Amino acid sequence: MIESFGAAIRVALAAALAMVLPAGANAQAQTTAQQQQLQQQVRQFANMYTVTDYALGANENCDLFTLGEYRGLRVFRDLLRSDLGKVLKKEQVDQLSTFDKAKSEWKGCLTRASHSQQWAIIENAQVMALAMIAAPSKITADPKTCKVDGVYQALKPLEWSFALKNAEASATVTKRRADYDALTKEFASIIDRQCQKGVSQMLQPGYDAILLLEENNLYLQKGKKPAQVFTSIGSSIAAFPVSADMGVWRSRLGSFLGTRPSRGLNVYRVLDRGDKPVVFFHLSRPGTFDPRGTMLVTRQGGWIARLRSNVDEVALNLPDGSRIALTKQSGSGSRVVGASQFALPADGKAKLARLSDDAAITVSYRMNGKEWTPFLDIGREAPVQSQSMGHIRKALIWANAPMPAKGDRL
User: Which of these, 66, 321, 346, 364, is most buried using a 10 Å CB contact count?
Assistant: First the structure.
């Protein structure tokens, strides 16, 4: 499969995404040759779609891909689905999906020795993802004139070179150099076409690869002032890197964020397999000097509130009106300028475990025994921060996915 896939994808990508596929309703007006060419292109697009979709499904239950690779697969899968939707009905595209099949096959991590066919698909997908990460360094357009879709930030060639070096450090590139080089060239040409409009979605995988590099670089410098960064991305996160709370991490669940904070649950795959934080959500208040911080959830369901204010009490509010008081572990300074940390006690953890999936948890604080004040989410007109136990449990399942055995890793 590897050889035929490599040839097919190079042919298809020469016109992929820039090509305007004709609508199905116009099929009768086409010549037989045109119809045959279109059918071949659709088959090639469908092949790439099934590969990326399968890889993402497998990644749900096995920690296969780093952040840039994960982003590359998501971006390309979604673009392929969009193009296929121009010539196929929605139900036909749905039938091509291999996401659930992969989740079913990968109930944890499969061994390469016993599942060579499944691993061949994963390797094909990684070649595509690595080529997308590297492609921004190969474009002919001036990178400073093309912004990353979603963050609208343009990077310099030197900054993109870190994504290229990151991709080419992979053992898969050494093994599949010809496919990787050809794909990188084709992806670069697609980015060039997108950059004619000043913005490209296909720059996101490279951006996320640099972000992960900078995050873990900052973690390794913990306590060093000033911290050294390589790129403008690093400068953006230097003050509050996620790695300061999470440690070295590999990937995060969900859509492209860049360096922006995200509402709701932020879910990470962390290298340390101990009972470390892997999920967090923001705790905020509207006033300039009001308490704010994060609530961290650890692998085994512990809750830790870390605030940039020294408050007296923090509690979780349950649907029945009761509260679970968190234990104050540390505090310094004042409510306006200070810090404090609170942790969920063992009996509180047991109480949360008994709640149903639809049970919503909110978080409050108080000072001097006065009225409890609820924390909000972040953003304008933010609602009260509320998280369902079901969403938290699903997040922990994703974050706790095992890694392949050392000899099997990509």
Answer: 66
Alpha carbons 170 and 72: distance in angstroms, whole number: 15
Q: In DSSP terms, which residues pair with 386 in a beta bridge? A: 362
In terms of Cβ atoms closer than 10 Å to its own Cβ (0-12, 13-18, 19+), residue 116 is exposed
Number of H helices, E strands in the chain: 14, 14
pLDDT tens for 256-280 read 999 988 899 999 999 999 999 999 9
In tens, the pLDDT along 376-389 reads: 999 888 999 999 99
The pLDDT of residue 287: 84
Does residue 21 carry a pLDDT above 50? no
Average pLDDT over residues 352-370: 96
Mean residue pLDDT of the chain comes to: 91
The rounded distance, in Å, linking the Cα atoms of 406 and 245 is 26
* Distance in angstroms (rounded) separating the CA atoms of residues 144 and 132: 18
Q: How many CB atoms lie within 10 A of CB 142?
A: 11
Supply the DSSP string of 82-146, one letter for each residue. HHHTTTS-HHHHHHH--HHHHHHH-SSPPPTTT-HHHHHHHHHHHHHHHHHHHGGGG-SS-GGG-
